[in-house]
Amino acid sequence: MAASAVPGYSPGFKKPPATLRLKRKRLRRNEPAAAPLPCGAAPPPPSAPARRNPFSSLDNAPRAAGTPQPRERGRRPPPPASGSPSAAPFWQVGPSPVPSSPRHEFPADWSLKTRLLFMSSQPFTWAEHLKAQEEAQGFAQHCRATETNLPEHIQQSLVYWLHPSLPWLQLFPRIGADRKIVGKATPWSQDEALQQVLMSDWSVSFTSLYNLLKAKLCPYFYVCTYQFTVLFRAAGLAGSDIITAVVSPTTRGLREAMRSEGIEFSLPLVEESRTRKQKNSEVNLETEVANTPSDDDDESFSWLEEMGVQDKVKKPDTISIKLRKEKHEVQVDHRPESLALVKGTNTFTLLNFLINCKSLVAVAGPQAGLPPTLLSPVAFRGGTMQTLKARSINAKARVHSAYEDIFSLEIAGPVLPHSLHALTMLLQAAQRGAFSAVLYTHEPTAVFNADLDAETVCKDLAACGLHPKTLHQLSQRPTLGKSSIRFLEMKDYAYTWKS
């Protein structure tokens, strides 16, 4: 049978590889003998481009938005202003960023990032090939919490502190990490004595971090377990005037265990939802439970007696009320709405609870016996200094019958909030106020951006190890809700973003 006679056969259909070859032929047919490069420049040599000083034409203060940028000899000008027709850069990934009006600062993002991808029309090679002296100076400045003027060293922005340190295991993220850990050497999994040693060492490090936080020498830290994550924040951060801890996601079993240990906490997102429904006059289970009196509060039904219908209305009994309440609690388990907020001295009780909590460590599977991961922006007892992995990539893309340079810088996590802000401050100067970034969030931590109805306060955290501008950003009330920043762009030294 002829191919054309086969039902549904289209003579114009080609397999994907054939289609790609056809497109390549069409491109070659339309191209001149030698495809022109920008500004008549010669094709790039196979070796990496010479390392440049990104701060050569910068003073210590960034220019205001709209300030004309000097055009270096042999370099093309920065991307056009956001109001021009060609404002969207060719390297932009994802949908258009928001808000519509650019800002000189982006909101604090308390979620942990697994990866950052920065893109710019200027090379990033200066960020990858560091001299030994630059690397050493970056470490020293970080450990001494030294505030530096430009040029800053990228090494200082990549440092974080970790416990435990097991180089052959990836210790972040921990939620859903079984697949990456399975098959790796875990000698403690069947050795109870070794597990006790690891947990004892971990407890010392955890307590050290909390003491630093209380003394305002550590701004915040994370406790990453195989089931949930805890973020401890010092007084003065995220708009709170006292120490806070947020736990997410939680389960009814975990919440009941916390209550039994005397830990006072709230479920702010559940309460927010309940309040919103009450304002909209919607009937919901929480309103019913909250407004239902106890068995010994018969006065609330006196109005039924006055109407003579008290025998026709069935009062809810205590057992049914409890069952409905438990059903509602289970519905938020493992969801962002299950976030628990602990404040003030209750955070110390939470510390002791976590140290003694049997379910904190997996008893089976690849993570069995492995203590939770502690992540901190500053040094602590038992902590190991780690650096984020930075890698620059240079390429060329065909745009409008010409080739354009694409430069990108990949940062592999865990990226803490202070590192994200420090890197943007560095790139703001080095990339001449024009770059974009795609941010990959560890989803269970996105809810840490929820506004907890705190008031913006000022606390003396100057010795906590953060740059003053970063500290100012992290002290503001969160505005991202249960989401996080996915795309960030700077043009003319002003930010837009999308969450």
Number of strands: 15
**Whole-number average pLDDT?**
78
* Series of secondary-structure elements, N-terminal to C-terminal: HEEHHHEHHEEEHEHHHHEHEEEEHEHEE
For the record, the count of structural domains works out to 3
Radius of gyration: 28 Å
Sheet of most strands = 8 strands, antiparallel
Q: Roughly what fraction of the amino acids lie in strands?
A: 15-25%
Structural summary, described in words:
Strand 11 (389-399) and strand 12 form a beta hairpin. The protein contains 14 helices and 15 strands. It folds into three domains: 98-157 and 388-498, no CATH class; 178-271 and 336-385, no CATH class; 272-329, no CATH class. The protein is globular, with a radius of gyration of 28 Å. An eight-stranded antiparallel sheet has the order 7-8-6-5-4-9-3-10. Strands 1-15-14-13-2-12-11 form a seven-stranded antiparallel sheet. By secondary structure, it is an alpha+beta fold. The chain has helices spanning 16-30, 125-128, 132-143, 154-158, 178-181, 192-214, 252-260, 268-279, 285-291, 302-307, 318-331, 346-356, 417-430, 468-475, and strands at 98-103, 113-120, 159-163, 220-224, 229-233, 244-248, 265-266, 340-343, 373-376, 384-387, 389-399, 402-415, 435-441, 487-491, 494-498. It is 29% helix and 18% strand.
